[in-house]
Predict the structure of 4-alpha-glucanotransferase.
Amino acid sequence: MLAGMEEPRVSQLSPELVRLASAFGVATEYEGWRGEAVYAAPATVIAVLGALGVDASTPEAARAALAAQDEARRTRLLPPVLVLRAGRAAGFTVNVPVGHRVELWIELEDGGIRRDVGPGPGPGPGGDPIGAHRIPSDLPLGWHTLHARCSPAPEESLGSGGVASADGEGVYASCAIAITPAVLPVPAERSWGYMVQLYSLPSRRSWGIGDLADLADLATWSARAQGAGFVLVNPLHAASPVLPVEASPYLPVSRRFPDPMYVRVEAVPEFAYLSPVERAVAEELRASAGDGSDGADRLDRDAVRTAKRAALALVHKVPRSLGRDADYRAFIAREGQWLTDFATWCALVEEYGPTWRDWPEELHDPDSAEVAAARERLAGTVDFHRWTQWVLADQLRAAQEAATRAGMPVGVVHDLAVGVHPDGADAWVLGSTRGGGVLALGATGGAPPDAMNQIGQDWNQPPWHPQRLAEAGYAPYRELLRAVFRHAGAVRVDHVLGLFRFWWVPKGNSPAEGAYVRYDHEAMVGILALEAHRAGAVVIGEDLGTVEPWVRTYLAERGILGTSVLWFERDDKGRPLPPEQWRASSLATVTTHDLPPTAARLAGEHIDLWERLHLLVRDVEVERAEDLADREQWLELLRRRGYLRPGAGERETVEALHRLLAAAPCRLLGVWLPDGVGDRRPQNLPGTSTEYPNWLLPVADGEGRRVCLEDLPVDPRAVSLARALRGR
């Protein structure tokens, strides 16, 4: 908690506010990280409801909002969407107007029609309520449409089955049905792989940061030379096209589209047809971006963005071959309005600046006549941004194909960030009227106080609006998933707990002054499973932090792997959990990008860093003592297992911890690549922004010297660590 703040020890909410919060999925209490009950303050609950578009400012307003919610539920002919598991007959309610009869049919995704939508047994003991119907249990996986048409019934057939009124003209409605896999298959074989922030590991051929050609090379080399089965990278989502570039890959302007900074310019086929003068210009631009061997201790994203934007503009002007142009046109058709909106936003950003709220007001609506006119006026720039996405899609596909061709059973594991920047393209579109307001722009997502972040976290990302997302048939969500899965062997879902409940921080509140908002997890997880199934991909859920126990059980039952981090694996008495008792259905790692590299943790350097940056709420000596005791428990386990000899150094201890990791039954074993070269600096320090160079550090060895991709095959630490895992 923040200094001077006290969490309510008992609920201070009125009965009306409790009922209204429950109706909209706002939790009024939760279990804190110490196991205590934490109650939300009334002002917090009112603010969260306000971000949901619900007025709870007075008891009268709360009662009116409850009545309106109940009226909307009772009079809606069909639910907004149905997300069901394959093989299960599922019920739903049709609110048939009084004096009407209903005709129901299902239009299948492939164009077929099903009319066997049967009524439930009817009211009575053990029966279904009035208006209940059932979806057949044998519908195929996919997205279908349920249609309902109500028409006045003949007078002799009128009954009391209706619960809503309507005029004599009848009523028609439809809703989407998603039939999702009951369970996803886990990886057929156990494998290990590197985890790396791609930008932090450039080759000597790339432009200042690691790119998609580097990813293909890393996957191919680690598969063929070291027997790796996957490479897990940071989110490759798009950042703003104007400077300064946001450093965090977890705060993108769009999750639907990747970032052009990851393009290998020379790999674009049209690059070969640049004139000699244009090639010379491109070489000068490459030099201005730096490379992996320039010795700089910070990555310069602004220089990379500027250089690649100019170079790609040169290549964009090169005429495409007949076949290449046909492919480009097909790509534009496939991506549709989503791509046009994103490219338009990029063009407007380059003209009016990065914050769309500061643009002329008439440009705030993506569907306005003024936006359409600007799109026409900026047609060349819009086409450039569409074209770069086509180039990216081609290189993403090539990276995954290179990984699988080299023998990786999984290949590239892409990371799906929690949310997007409030000033970005997704917020501009999805927060608008046309976007259905499916992003709640009056709040941001984050996390409550916990052991690692004792003041809580505010990620500055507008969360999904659960009701409006359902009313949109989850279309923005499913389109996002299709895009991320398209060139992935697996997808890691950051903060997968957000599919169940998400910590909402109303604008102006501190991170601790928030509340959990619940989502329809059956729908959110089911759609995730459906899109993964269609892509033939694995799903990994990052399920760390404050987790309700049943959530992990549910995810495992759906075939979604969890995340097991060695330092957090403990029994109910706080002792290190023997690796044989870890979850088999998980990705196991020693550390992550949000934790200290293993070499630094073994030396306790992270405590020194936390103290220096004033991130501790307890006495530093207490933190050091607890950290030392924690480490010693793990080292003692290593000694008992014979993994660690007396007097072993830091490098041997890092390898011993990975041998312990390999003793777990987990399907996937992840190695934080900086551990393989002795890097001691965390990539990210949660709870900080400008205090620490988050996301700006290139991979370095234990002495702070930059490491390039080409250095890995001859780095003795990397070779030795891979051998330890390969020989598990």
Q: What stands out?
A: The mean pLDDT is 92. Residues 322-352 form the longest helix (31 residues). The radius of gyration is 27 Å.
